[in-house]
Amino acid sequence: MIRCILIDANDTIILTADVGRTQESGIKRYFVDFDQPTDAEKQKLIEVFDFHPLAVEDCFHYLQRPKLEYYTEHSFFVLHALDEGTLTSREINLFASDRHLVSYHEQSSREIDIVFEQCTQRLDKQETVDLVHKIMDKIVDGYFPIVHATEDELFALEERYRTRGNDRRLMEEIFELRARLLRISRTVMPMRDLLYRVVESKRLSIHPKKQAFFRDLYDHLLKLSEMIEYNRLMTSEFRDNFISLNSYRMNSIMKTLTIFTTIFMPLTFIAGIYGMNFEHMPELTTRYGYFVTLGAMALLALGMILFFKKNRWFDE
């Protein structure tokens, strides 16, 4: 679908689907949106507009990294929005100049829909840079609920972790959450770098007062980046603590088993000797030999237990 907002010489707003009208002499400014275009509509992007072929090629090769490219007649933006359900990136391409803004996206974009609807009322009062900022602002606003929801889920897992640190299912959820944070960061971090380029750019015609709005977006992305990194560190700590806790418990079990094995080794040795049943073993005919042997084994076991306790082998 192609939709256009045109402003003529009389500042009249014209809504049309005929992208060819953007080239009429009486049109001062326009905003054209290529929303999930068909192959025939994609061809119009090439035929109607004189955009750089590399920028057009980037539109057709999904998914490009967020970036800003400067060309003679326009600037080209690649933006990434986040799908709240799948956490996959949705690419939005913008061709911007003083006279026009052309957006191209092969997936539905709530951000473009909102800004386009606003422009149907007062496009004549907004510069192209304002529209670019609004689209970026809507995209960044869409990041916050996703990051906050992930953070809330992590805090809930932290409470469960304190009471059930050895729960294998809990650790699986933490690893899943870590993977989600990684997918989010793959979108947010490049967008942060893009906003830094926009803020520091000397080639974009952005008034210093309006540049402050882009700087505010950059600050928001810095905050999101810090939140994501902090949450990833938390999941790393959970993972390391889980491994350490399991190792500690395994060592405690092995320590207990070793103590019992050590105690029973001499007892087993004694029982083994008197279990051989040789005919000329004098102890076998002793009247109280059985009880003496049991007593000796009991004293030996008790002595070893006291020795281990004195040397704090039973301490955690």
From TrEMBL:
Described purpose of this protein according to its UniProt entry: Mediates influx of magnesium ions.
Chief subcellular location: membrane
Gene name linked to the record: corA
Name of the molecule in the record: Magnesium transport protein CorA
Keyword Transmembrane helix: yes
PANTHER family reported for this sequence: CORA FAMILY METAL ION TRANSPORTER (EUROFUNG)
Subcellular compartments: Cell membrane; Membrane
Family, per entry: Belongs to the CorA metal ion transporter (MIT) (TC 1.A.35) family.
Pfam family, one: CorA
Keyword annotations: Cell membrane, Ion transport, Magnesium, Membrane, Transmembrane, Transmembrane helix, Transport
Domain of life: Bacteria
Keyword Transmembrane recorded: yes
Membrane topology: Multi-pass membrane protein
Transmembrane segments: 257-276, 288-308
